[in-house]
Amino acid sequence: MRRRPYRRRRRRSASGHDRAMEDQLTVPEACRLLGGASTWRTHPVERIGLPAIKMSDGPNGVRGDGLGTRQTPGVVIPAGIAVGATWDPDLVGELGDLLGTESIRKGAHVLLAPTVNLQRTPIGGRVFECMSEDPELTARLCVPYIRGVQAHDVAVTVKHFVVNDTEVDRMTVDVDADERVLRELYLRPFESAVREAGAWGVMSAYNQLHGEHCAANRWLLTEVLREEWGFDGFVVSDWFGSHDTVPSALAGLNVAMPGPQTIFGERLQAAVEAGDVPAERVLDLAADVLHLADRVHARELSSEREERTVDEPAERALCRRAAAAAMVLVRNDGTLPLDDDARVAVVGPNAADTRIMGGGSASLQPLVRRSILDAVTERFRHVVHETGVRIDRMPPPMTDRVLRTPDGRPGLLVTFRNGQDESTEPVTTEVAASSMLRFFGSAPVGVDPERFHVALEGELVPEVDGPHEISATLTGAGEVVVGDTVVLDDPTRSLPRGEMFFGQGAVEQRAVVDLRAGVPVRVRATSTGRGGFNALRIGLRPPEPADALERAVAAAADADVAVVVVGTNDEWETEGEDRTTIALPGRQDELVQRVAAANPRTVVVVNAGAPVAMPWIDDVAAVVIGWFGGQGMADAVADVLSGDVDPGGRSPITFPRRLEDTPAWPHYQPVDGIQRYGEGLRMGYRGFAASGTDPLVPFGHGLSYGTAEWGDASVASSFGHGSTDGDVEVVVEVPVRSVGDRAATVVVQGYLTAPDAPVERPARWLVAWDKLVVEPGGASVARLRLGVEAFRRWDGARGGWVVDPGRYELVVASSSAPGAEHQRVAIDVPG
Question: Compositional bias of type Basic residues: which residue ranges (predicted)?
Fold first, then answer.
């Protein structure tokens, strides 16, 4: 391939300090700067006064350094899909502001968030982390999120650029998508993040696009991102997601993470010396990092400052309010809200073990731990509880409730040594509160992060008699022994790799051990670490009462109302792997069906981060989708069930009745390493509208406890006539009036159709919405504001955007479903 001559970029925005450092930086220093120094930090350049820049995972909190025994607890906001379900840009801006504050507390200059990939299928492992299946909803919500974070001089990294929409072969899969599909759907949120929000950072995706890894894709990183959109920030690779030195440097990758071994550094310097990468190119890439350091005040705010945990009542209240604003009331026969004096049976696996976030890099140590059972028990006077069924995919990790160290403290004693065995003297010891540990950039001071050994010792004190299932996996060489049973023995790291720990953990090993309540059993485990990573997990599943389900049904039958809390957890929904089904894990469907048969006043709360099937939906009184709602979720559920708060959410994704109904499903599996986006523009609700397939929960659907009537929609201004709002070309107004005795939450949605378009357009596409709360007896006006981008389409032949003149129709509706349509308004676009 012929390489075009490189021309030095002119920086449009750089401080005098930036330019002074640029002029001093040498090429070897620049090469080193572009490769990460460690898991979360860049290299300092002490000669010119440039300190390290610290990054931290998001997007539903700020984790800080810790992944091992020392994790700094932090605020957990609702997961991305719940943020999308709020349909509330102002509220999302508040959450972004909170994350900016948390980033400062954790000493982070860069937050690795937000995730703005689209939910192409309901089974993607990171669906919970994304905001929506719709590009407009995602775009409109990511802008205030970014502005809120960056208001604190903390950089975001909008991710994952682009089409990182599946975890199947995510490091290698090659996505084949038409440019029009890319432009109108998958690139749209990134464009808004850059052009409207002014994002300071972008993270490249793991996958390939049209045969090139995204971290080495010049069309993405230079032609679209910088030249077309005017991006003046930095591009960081996803962790271990950069592969080739020369293509990545020429494409525009600024920082390869994590360090210290990366494709840049010495390898980049060698490429410069060989003439494969111009020295000017390296200096330009480094200039972007210097500009980042200036923006985030890295010289004044050290990356080594102490991480802090702050528990602010106002922040708790915000998280609780956001969780309620995201909750989607799918159906309600009048059972909700519940009476204060109702006898409530709370059953289901997620009642006492409520999940507030998904698995993988989005997880962190929560500041607040509360279950739905805790909150409901506090809110209502008469509550009984039965679990009914379990959903653990694997035996869950043990906690300090059943673990104690050799000297009697809660937890397990962890001993660290440098090297790969126990022949050296211990460097330090710590106490772990759980039997799942991940050391990724979080080894204690004095421990070599590239080569270290950990040993766990302690006792398990069982709570019940009987056969206990024990599981074990680890990333290095080692063993796991419980009592006299060797659960895992892998001294040479020869076991095949499984799914845990991003595919680096050994295939899970299991054993059954007969234990007695209160009788301690010795636990010992070892694992070696390489490349900064060491992780192990020991799980324990006690025997389940044989009559657990029957007890739950009996409790429900004896109550005035049954609240069944079903869902998934961070083992079923996690980075690194997709789900294989939308069915609820375990026997949860059976639990709901039997409880509903015993008590017609059955309310189901779905605690999951992605769509699930509900074969019982017509047999229950009410369904509330609570998502992974963050630290305020439990109290928000109690607020909604009691009627203290109106459920404010609308679904940001389509729930199919069957997985096979998903438009992208026929094209889901890669063929010969290539994943073709064969559904084209018919992704998500657009595909359901085109085929006429009836979904389980339509995109945009959600009910309120209040009742409102919508009046006739009218065009208040159109294409230069009456509009005074900058980029807004069309304003459609819809009067809304409360007709009930409770406040009504209303989301008036506008979908465009183009019946006379010269080329295929989606059957309908979301272009605007307005979220209102109308008090009893009150009235308001919803305003749908459409900019020119609402009408545009990508013309591949012209290589640009076009707006076809002619008649369009704005479908004013309460959801994307045909039956939710309120009125159609004609809009004429002049030629």
Answer: 1-14
Closest CA to 504 of 536, 475, 530: 475
Q: What is the percentage of the chain residues whose pLDDT exceeds 90?
A: 89
- CATH topology agreement for domains 314-391+553-671+682-689 and 403-541: no
Tokens 């091992």 correspond to 68
All structural domains of the chain with their residue ranges: 314-391+553-671+682-689, 403-541, 706-829
Q: 696, 617 in Cβ contact below 8 A? A: yes
**pTM > 0.90: yes or no:** yes
Contact 348, 565 (CB under 8 A): yes
| Best CA proximity match to 434, nearest among 538, 526, 525, 519 | 538
On the question of a cis peptide bond just before residue 698, with omega within 30 degrees of 0, the verdict is: no
Which residues lie closer than 8 Å to 33 by C-beta, 6 or more apart? Answer: 25, 42, 43, 45, 50, 286, 289
DSSP-assigned letter for residue 380: S
> Cα-Cα-Cα-Cα dihedral of 510, 514, 520, 524, to 10°?
-20
Helices (H), 125-186: 135-150, 179-181
Domain 403-541, CATH homologous superfamily name and number? Galactose-binding domain-like (2.60.120.260)
Please, which pLDDT band fits residue 2 given cuts at 50, 70 and 90?
Answer: very low
Cβ-contact 445, 439 below 8 angstroms: no
Alpha helices in 599-660 (DSSP H): 633-642
Q: How many Cα atoms are found within 13 Å in the side-chain-facing hemisphere of 675?
A: 22
* Average pLDDT score over residue span 756-766: 96
328 near 85, Cβ under 8 Å?
Answer: yes
Query: What angle is formed at CA 696 by the lines to CA 692 and CA 699, rounded to 5 degrees?
Result: 75
How far apart are alpha carbons 463 and 483 in whole angstroms?
A: 16
Residues 415 and 455 sit within 8 Å (Cβ to Cβ): yes
Query: Which residues pair with residue 410 across a beta bridge?
Result: 404
Domain 706-829, CATH: 2.60.40.10
Query: Where does 419-573 show beta strands of DSSP type E?
Result: 428-432, 436-440, 451-460, 466-474, 478-482, 485-490, 509-515, 521-530, 533-541, 561-567
The helix/strand/coil state of 721 is strand
**CB-CB contact of 635 with 655 (8 Å):** no
Residue at 127: amino acid letter: V
3-state DSSP percent of the chain in helix, strand and coil, to 5: 25, 30, 45
Q: How far apart are CA 83 and CA 95, in angstroms?
A: 9
pLDDT in tens, 352-383: 999 999 998 899 999 989 999 999 999 999 99
What pLDDT score was predicted for residue 662?
Answer: 98
Task: State the catalytic residues.
Answer: 238
